Amino acid sequence: MNRKMNTLLLSLLISDSVLADDAGILRCRNLSEAPARLACYDALVVPATDAKRGVSKPAVQPETRPSPAATPMSSPAVVAAAPQKIEQFGLENRVNPDTLDAIESYIPGRFEGWEAKSNIKLANGQVWQVSDDSSRYLTLNDPKVRIRRGALGTFYLEFEKTNYSPRVRRVQ
Length: 172
Description:
By secondary structure, this protein is of the alpha+beta class. Among the domains are: 2-52, no CATH class; 102-170. It has seven helices and eight strands. The chain has helices at residues 2-13, 16-20, 22-29, 34-43, 49-52, 76-81, 83-88, and strands at 102-106, 110-111, 119-121, 127-130, 140-141, 144-149, 155-159, 167-170. Strands 1-6-7-8-4-3 form a six-stranded antiparallel sheet, with no helix packed on it. Strand 7 and strand 8 form a beta hairpin. The N and C termini lie far apart (70 Å).
């Protein structure tokens, strides 16, 4: 029974396209010249069973290369037209080095913690909203806070002398 299962599984794993044209594969293998052998393999027909499974092969387009005289970069006018853009090429997604990593402030008055979607107003006038589902009960007077950047554009509100830091977003 176990051997029959192994044989069945093996036959399911072997693709129909591998078994489809053994004679054609052998014919191509016997060619001695590499370009002719490659052309022979490229000409092999894939059976229609792959199409029934929803497997589609990308259409192969012949490679066309423009002549060097036709390339836009060969023209000095293009290079001279946008020197700043060329200097910045590839740097578009980098963080501006002048960007702050964190700000520090404090929450004026008595602070009693937060819940999800709570707004927290800092002494500098900024309003930040808790954007995760965390909640915490704290009783602090004028707590010093630090808002730091996280990964993928997130911000975290850190309270001095605690390990609590809810994820926040600026609303004002």
